[in-house]
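One example given next:
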Amino acid sequence: MFGKKSKNSSAEAGSAIPKAKAQSPRDILTDKLDQLTPGQQIMFRLPEMYGPEIIIVEAKKDYQGKGHRYAVIASTPVDGKPGPKRNTIWEAGKPKAIADWLVVRNAQQLV
């Protein structure tokens, strides 16, 4: 009557099914960046308050397991596409830092 509940109570039986946790936007973006092969890139547009920049995240071609794997590059748009002038903002070895930076700035991926 009083004391411990039995292991087969009806309240616990329904909760035995594991529920899939929804991924956050940062986790989704981290997975996309992690799947880039050397030489591939993803482009993002920043909101207007950050300037007219297009951000390019590129997996380096010459990455050999040492140093930084990704380059974050800014480019001024020309006709909605990245222009010829490109400036490397920073480099990172892990995609989580880049994903955080993009999510905080509400960057939208370009197709």
